[in-house]
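User: Can you help me understand a structure? I only have the sequence.
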Amino acid sequence: MSPYTSFAVAGAGPTIGGRIVKALVEQGASVVALLRPSSASISSPLLEGAKIATADYADVKAVASILRENKTQVVISALAYGALSSQSTLADAAKEAGVKLFVPSEFGMPTEGGKAAHTVTKSQFADYLKSSGIPSLRIYTGMFMEFIPQFTGVDLGKFLVLGKGDASFSTTALDDVAGFTAHVLTTLPPAKLHDASFRVEGERTSFNKVGALYTASKNITVEHVTSLPEGYVKQTLLQGLFEQGRGSSGWDNYADKDVPENANSGNAAWPGHQWKTVKEVLEL
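Assistant: Let's start by predicting it. Here is the structure, written out as tokens:
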């Protein structure tokens, strides 16, 4: 069977969704950016070359109509964590419209077999897709490189590390995540995508290593702390998980351990690609 050519991206904002739209358009695909009517992304330059469609994600009939009208084969969800509850109605619409593949909003730490709060929502949605008879593709990328500064307090003039900071984690540039997603979806046959998962890694590093880059390049010192500043709720959660090694794309939730050799196992699906480094992306 030939690779897919028609896509809809829900949550096509400036972080990852819009970049996936751009990457798919550059591959010559037919793309619909599916946005809420109130979205500020409607005029985003990242969506140039794509068709813009607006709908309430909770309106299954309206979304299904858009997907059917555009002969959508693949739905990609790039919804933020707080909006993940909308994925179930998107899946219902995809099923009604005869969509062949659903790419859920993963793009982070592995969630297969996850029982903890940060994984269970995504893991349960994968089960929902399976029960609905819709094949899924899950892509694990580790932390987006561009997010490292906000998770370490760089805006405060320090590089804050919760704990020892020597645990390895996976990190991948946003453009590499988008490019990889577009590449595999438009070049691999459906049989290699259905109910599959890819683990990718732009670079394997640690907070101590990245902190050393900040010190050398920008004279920002590393501070090991027992708690992060007030308001750093998400940062505290993720740094704590990373300290356990769970920030690796190779983390195995079933075995409850990291399998480092699996962390970049999916990179081979994009042969010849030069993955960006932390130093390059953060200009260190």
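Now, to help you interpret it: Residues 117-132 form the longest helix (16 residues). The first strand starts at residue 6 and ends at 10. Let me know which part you'd like to focus on.
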